[in-house]
UniProtKB/TrEMBL annotation:
The keyword Transcription regulation does not apply. Signal peptide: none annotated. Transmembrane segments: none annotated. The lineage of its organism: Bacteria, Candidatus Nealsoniibacteriota. It comes from Candidatus Nealsonbacteria bacterium CG01_land_8_20_14_3_00_12. Residues 48-75 form a coiled coil. This is Pilus assembly protein PilO. One of its GO terms (biological process) is type IV pilus-dependent motility. It comes from the Bacteria. InterPro entries: PilO, Transl_elong_EF1B/ribsomal_bS6.
């Protein structure tokens, strides 16, 4: 069987075309797959750029409130800071004409569920401090006023007092709570 020359050329071209398509089709599919991955990565990159841009804008906005943030940080320090609190209480008591007789902290505990439900952070810790100061009532009243005005979050939980018969100074027992992260 002999094939005419034009038919052989057509058949050869057809076979060459099939081989070219057969070899280039997987490469073409691979190219399309890589192009879709590149588009996906570009979208991911745009999303990350937008995110970091928003973070930068938020950082700039926070810089405007730096003073307020420092007040919050001093009101809610990362640790209870009991030595500095003891020093503050000693100074406040003496400035108001009181004598700090006793100070006794209790361990830090997590906030109660009721506060967390109200929106307070569960990371906030509460530390109780029992203290006894001695002096007259007006001095004690000024001392309480100073505690309320301090930048630190101090909550007076209870107050009791007793007056010994032979002394004129009154012993005031306080239970205060301080907060920290």
């Amino acid at each position: 069987m002999t094939i005419s020359r034009p038919l052989a050329i057509l058949l050869g071209l057809f076979l060459a075309l099939l081989l070219a398509i057969g070899f280039s089709l997987p490469k073409y599919q691979n190219l399309k797959l890589l192009q879709s991955k590149v588009k996906e990565k570009e979208t991911e990159l745009q999303t990350e750029r937008k995110y970091f841009s928003e973070v930068g804008e938020a950082k700039e906005k926070l810089k405007k409130f730096e003073q307020e943030i420092s007040k919050i940080n001093s009101a809610l320090p990362p640790e209870p800071g009991l030595p500095s609190l003891g020093n503050f209480l000693q100074i406040a008591a003496s400035q108001n004409g009181l004598v700090l007789k006793k100070i006794m902290p209790s361990p830090a505990i997590s906030l109660k569920e009721e506060f967390i439900k109200k929106g307070f952070s569960p990371e906030i810790k509460e530390t109780g401090v029992n203290l006894t100061v001695s002096g007259d009532y007006p001095s004690f009243k000024n001392f309480l006023s100073n505690l309320e005005k301090t930048a630190r979050m101090i909550e007076i939980e209870s107050i009791s007092f007793s007056s010994p018969e032979e002394e004129t100074a009154i012993d005031f027992n306080l239970r205060i709570k301080i907060y920290s992260y």
